[in-house]
Amino acid sequence: VVNPRVVIVGATGAVGQVAIDILQQRAFPMESLRLCASHRSYGKLIQVGEKEIPIEAPTAEVFAECDIAFISASAEVSRTLAPLAVTNGCTVIDDSSAFRMDPQVPLVVPEINENDIEFHTGILSIPNCSTTQMVMSLYPLHRHIPLERVVVDTYQSVSGTGRGAQSELMEQSKNITAGIDPVIEQYPYQIAFNVLPHIESFDESGYTREEIKMREETQKIMHCPELKISATCVRVPVSVGHSESVHAEFKGPMSPETARSLLSNFPGVAIVDDPTKNAYPMPLMAHGRDEVFVGRIRQDVSVPNGLAMWIVSDNLRKGAATNAIQIAECLLERGALLR
Ligand SMILES: NC(=O)c1ccc[n+]([C@@H]2O[C@H](COP(=O)([O-])OP(=O)(O)OC[C@H]3O[C@@H](n4cnc5c(N)ncnc54)[C@H](OP(=O)(O)O)[C@@H]3O)[C@@H](O)[C@H]2O)c1
What we know:
This protein has 339 residues and is of the alpha/beta class. It contains 10 helices and 13 strands. Strands 3-4-2-1-5-6-7 form a 7-stranded mixed β-sheet, sandwiched between helices. Strand 5 (68-71), helix 3 (75-87) and strand 6 (91-94) form a beta-alpha-beta unit. The longest helix is centred in the C-terminal third of the chain and has 17 residues, at 317-333. It is globular. The termini are close together. The structure holds NADP nicotinamide-adenine-dinucleotide phosphate. Residues 9-16, 36-38, 40-41, 58, 72-75, 77, 95-96, 129, 159-160, 162-164, 315-316, 319-320 line the site of NADP nicotinamide-adenine-dinucleotide phosphate.
C-alpha cells in the first residue's frame, strides 16, 4: 500500500485520543482513518481536523478494510481483536501487555531495536510506558559501557491507568478540598493527596506485575536477558507524565560527563540538568512533549561505576501513542505491512 487505511481501537481512551492528535501532528500518511471503541460509544462523533468521524464496532469487516490497526483498549480486548485483525490482513500495533513477551511478537522502541520489526507475523507490541522511558535513557549508555544492574523507583501518573483514573483524581481533589468524602473506584485507596506503592497485582515474589514488566520488557528490548533489574512502581497524584529515579551500575566507569554527552546525542532524549538554576525534568514540563527528559545526572557514590538519573516523559505520548505511530512509520518505510 502507498497510504494505509488506519483504524484506532480504543479511540475514546486516554491513549487513543492522543493518538488521533499525533497522527495529525506528524502528518502520518493515511488514506483513511476509522475509529472504534466499546458499545458504550458506538455512533459518538469524534472531531478529527475538519471532519467528524463516528465511533464504530471493531468488526472483522472494519479490519478487512484497513491496513493498520492501533489497538489501545485492554489486554483482554487485544487478545480477541488482534488475531481477528491479522486474519483479515490488517497489521496490528498493540499497546496492551497481551503479546509483549511472546517470542513471535517484536517489542519495539524504534530508536533502540527497530530491526526487530522484521520478524513480525502481524502483531507488534509497544512496551509498558514506564519501561519505554527507562530504556530510552539506559540504552545509549549501555551501548558504550554494558550495564551490570539497575535499580529503579517510579512516580507514575494516573493517566497511566486511563481516562477514568484521570477523572477520579480531579473529582477526589475537588471533593476533599470542599470537605466532601471522596469516591474511591480506580485504586484500593484514595489517590488524591496520597501515594500508592502498588501498580497492578502482587505476585508471590512480592513484586507487582508492573515491576516485573519493567524487568522482562527491558531485557527483551535491549537483547540482554541476563540484565539485573529491581523496580518499585509507585502511583502518584499527577495527571500526565511518569517520573523515574534510576540507579544504574555499569561494567566499567561511566562519568556524568560521558553520560550527558551520550544522552544528548541520542534521538528522542533531551537533557534538562542544571542544579544551579533549579533545572530538572518534571511531569508538568514533559506533558504534551515527545522527548524523554533526563536530569539530576550524577555519580552514584554508593557503588563503583554507578550513575544516578531522574527521567520524566509523557506516558501517553512516547510511553504509548508516539511510540506506536513511530513503529507504523518504520513498517511503512520498510514496506513491511501484511498487505
Ligand atoms: N495510559 C498509558 O499511559 C498507557 C501506556 C502504554 C500502554 N497503555 C495501554 O493502552 C491501552 C489503553 O489504555 P488507556 O489508558 O487509553 O485506557 P482508557 O483511557 O481506559 O481507554 C480504554 C479505551 O478502550 C475502549 N474499550 C474498552 N472496552 C472495549 C471493547 N470491548 N472493545 C473496543 N474498545 C474498548 C474504551 O472505549 P469506551 O470509551 O467506549 O469505553 C476506550 O476507548 C491499555 O491496554 C493500556 O495498557 C496505556
